[in-house]
Amino acid sequence: MENQPLTFNDNAVIAINENEVVITLDERMVRITIKKKSFKMIQYIVDNKINLQQILNSNLVELITFIKKLNFNDILLSENENEILQYGVITRPLRINIDTKPIPDIKSSKWCFFGAPVDFANDPPRSPSSGPYVFRKIGSSNHKMIDIGDISYSTIDNIYRFGDKVMHIVNRITTNDNKFIMIGGDHSLTYFTLKEASKKYSDIILIQFDAHSDIDTNKDKKNNFLYHANFVSKLIDEKSISGAIQIGVRERTINYEESYIIDNNIIQIPGSYSEKYEAEISKKIKGKNIYITFDADSLDPKAFPHVTTPLDGGMNKKDVLSFIKTIKNIDCNIIGADIMEFTCGFDKTGKPFNKELKILEDIVQEIIN
Known about the structure:
There is one protein chain. By secondary structure, this protein is an alpha/beta fold. The protein has two domains: 79 residues; 279 residues, Ureohydrolase domain (Arginase, Chain A, 3-Layer(aba) Sandwich), CATH 3.40.800. It has twelve helices and 16 strands. It has a nine-stranded mixed beta sheet with strand order 6-8-7-9-14-13-10-11-12, with helices on both faces. A three-stranded antiparallel beta sheet has the order 2-3-4. Strands 1-5 form a two-stranded antiparallel ribbon. Helix 9 links the parallel strand 11 and strand 12. The two termini are 35 Å apart. 41% of the residues are buried.
């Protein structure tokens, strides 16, 4: 995208006053005031279809700093990015009054989190699309992170268009090496966080808590498209990850040969924690970049029934936390995480309930602390 001409974000409101120009972008909570002289310079760049790479290749240090700031805040975009974001990328959840924040443009000690309130898997009646809402409404750990809002969903979005928005946000967060948690949403979206993260971080190992491996190597047409049961094999095929540790997998059907696991640097560990796994995990992730994805169906339905695809014989909270503590005690770099596929119920007044949400809260706390 750096080789595409820069243009103004179509959602930006530009107010030209006597001595200055004010540019506002509501969905990013950005308001930038610049001198008219500087605005004319930006207008020249846009009119002459100059791209970001040309500016970065120049020796104009002040210009580079200025343009990079506008690009980070989505005021100046490539033409392709502008098309992706023409319907907005971040929105404040409408059903709940929360104090969302802009994506930090400096290194922050706090993790960022954003919601992905969609269900492209279409698994009624248990849809995870309300996950971000429930997490904010009846949770508390969100207050210890920088809440940047939800990825906005448009009726014209398919999984790939929505995924482009996810990738854009991950790019903005990781630009300054900030860490992030995505709250979903169906599990296919993990594909996009890792696809984008792999552009910045090499040698990523996926730590996957899940009842299902989400590996599908069938050659039928259905498997040509991304969905929540094949995102891991898609990431492996595209070399976005260099391996995976899958914890708690107990799927009923297996859509791959056993050799696939060995050939692609994947290990599968039972959901019951034991210290005997520590050496194996350490050997796998020491010195590596790590991404943790947590599918709520990794938990046993008796402990956590609010999931999209429940499967008996799952994990308990104690075992999950023990695995995460082991991972954090190893010399590795956790770049991000997500919590996916949890649902909720609603009473007759529309009030959400999910009394087991405290389990996910404790898992998030263990990851970010």
